[in-house]
Amino acid sequence: MHDAPIAYIERTRAWYLALGYGNPYRYAQFDEVPFQPLKKPLAASVVTLVTTAAPYQPGKGPQGPGAPMNASVKFYVPYTGDTARDHDLRIAHVAIDRRHTSMEDSNCWFPLPLLRAFAREGRLRLAPRFHGAPTNRSQRHTLEHDVPLIVQRCLDDGVDAALLVPNCPVCHQTLALTARGLEAAGISTVVMGCAKDIVEHVGVPRFLFSDFPLGNAAGKPHDPASQRQTLELALQLLQTATAARTTLQSPIRWSASSEWKRDYCNIERASPEEIARARAEFDAIKAQARSIRSSEIS
């Protein structure tokens, strides 16, 4: 039973109810899913990367390995970056699995260096820009503001296909919505993620599922072979899927034991003291995030 994928929707709903919040979050869900077959051979296709990772901001608190959730580095407006150079993108601003992964190897959540290597090998053409998508709980704002901006930027760059790499539960919804917008605009997509139930609940064209702790959708940390195999699988899916809602599960296991799946937001494993502490921390994070959001999008 514990080797089944984590039911993140159910798990987080129970967690936030236990923290004392009513009206649990409802994830987006669609019956129809747009689907755009890859128009060109992969070697001739311009491919971009869409991430929910945030640029490192010195002076804004812990953001490195083992950092707690840090709302001060959240962003609420889509950004772009030059794919020709390296970037220090981190995931301290979102609710990834901090117990079972180290947050040490950014290749697990931002596979740009490996994409550049594939481009040098002639396997694809890399777009001039990658894109950062805000992890916004407002589905309306994501659909009406963030997705159209990212879609237009990809169209401006002549993008044929996009790989989307989410991190936390809401990140998976954000990039599932982004994938839908890109496909509707004629751009083929693959979501590379770890929250199977959320991505499939929203409904996307192609989904590469890695049964790993959140924050490792592009492969295992310090394991270049798993990172390369994960990207290979995503590109394979991009070329071979024939219909929407195609999910491919990576054969790579996180560990010999599936015990790690029992911990994330599991109210059955939390003491009353842990619940009270989590409520206080979440209240503080929400207040901080509201302040940043109002200043960025005003």
Distance between the termini: 47 Å
Q: What's the main sheet like? A: 8 strands, mixed
- The total strand number stands at 10
Overall domain count: 1
Low-pLDDT ranges: none
Secondary-structure map:
Layout: H1 8-18, E1 46-51, E2 54-55, E3 79-82, E4 89-90, H2 112-120, E5 125-126, E6 129-132, H3 139-156, E7 161-165, H4 169-184, E8 188-193, H5 196-202, E9 206-209, H6 224-240, E10 246-249, H7 272-297
Parallel strand pairs: 1-5, 1-6, 1-7, 7-8, 8-9, 9-10
Antiparallel strand pairs: 2-4, 3-6
Helix pairs in contact: 3-4
How does this model look, in words?
The chain has helices at about 10-20, 110-120, 140-155, 170-185, 195-200, 225-240, 270-295, and strands at about 45-50, 55, 80, 90, 125, 130, 160-165, 190-195, 205-210, 245-250. It is of the alpha/beta class. It has one domain. The strands form 2 sheets. Strands 1, 3, 5, 6, 7, 8, 9 and 10 form an 8-stranded mixed β-sheet that branches. A two-stranded antiparallel ribbon has the order 2-4. Strand 9, helix 6 and strand 10 (about 245-250) form a beta-alpha-beta unit. Helix 3 crosses helix 4 (about 170-185). The radius of gyration is 18 Å and the shape is globular. This is Reductase. It comes from Ramlibacter alkalitolerans.
